[in-house]
């Protein structure tokens, strides 16, 4: 099970990945993800709230959702998988 510190790290990495893609204007992002990136942008703050409330299962579903959305936007699947691994297994 991931520690609270590790979950915070994952949330902040996801936030950074979304931020990096906000300004990308390709046909794919403009037509398929129009508006969706803003939803992803708002998710990390809510996820930190779930962590503070002890709502770990919901938080993990949201982590998976964000990772899936980022994968569809071209983020390397291996990078996303390593994000959840304990540091000693990377």
Topology of helices and strands:
Layout: H1 4-21, H2 27-32, H3 36-53, H4 56-72, H5 77-83
Question: How far apart lie the N and C ends?
Answer: 16 Å
Strand residue content: under 5%
Mean pLDDT: 86
Low confidence ranges: none
Largest sheet: number of strands, sense, barrel closure? none
Rounded to an integer in angstroms, the radius of gyration calculated over CA atoms is 13 Å
Shape: globular
Helix content: over 70%
Report the structural category.
mainly alpha
Number of E strands? 0
- Give the number of helices: 5
**Helix and strand succession?**
HHHHH
Q: What is the quaternary state of this protein?
A: single chain
Q: What would your notes on this structure say?
A:
- The protein has 90 residues and is mainly alpha-helical.
- It has a domain at 1-31 and 76-90.
- Helices cover 73% and strands 0% of the residues.
- It has five helices and no strands.
- It has helices spanning 4-21, 27-32, 36-53, 56-72, 77-83.
- Helix 1 packs parallel to helix 4.
- The protein is globular.
- The model has no long low-confidence stretch (mean pLDDT 86).
